[in-house]
Design goal:
Elements: H1 21-37, H2 47-58, H3 60-68, H4 75-94
Length: 99
């Protein structure tokens, strides 16, 4: 009933109704430009960003992928590949090119 299996309360998620995303994006671009020109001091990394960076530095394959700039395969590419393999398997089993 409810003795051994207690449900956790729903997590709080506050979403703003009136947000000007364009204004925030422009402010971020302006801040980055000022930092590049030396008008503002360098940005301090948060503890989360520092920790995340340590994990990437600690593994060779992630470091190589980050340096090469290559992105992993998307779900769409994987689905297309699986579909093609299923089509080839169907041809090998039945000998017909149509479904």
């Amino acid at each position: 009933m409810g003795i051994f299996k207690s449900e956790k309360p729903r997590a709080f998620s506050h979403q703003y109704i009136y947000v000007n995303e364009r204004k925030e994006k422009l402010a971020k671009i302006e801040e980055n430009a000022k930092r590049d020109l030396g008008m503002l001091p360098e940005k301090e990394l948060t503890s989360e960003e520092r920790i995340r960076g340590k994990f990437v530095e600690g593994t060779k394959h992630l470091k190589r992928r980050k340096e090469s700039g290559r992105k992993p395969l998307t779900y769409a590419a994987l689905l297309i590949g699986i579909g093609a393999l299923c089509y080839v398997l169907h041809y090998l089993v039945t000998g017909e090119l149509t479904f």
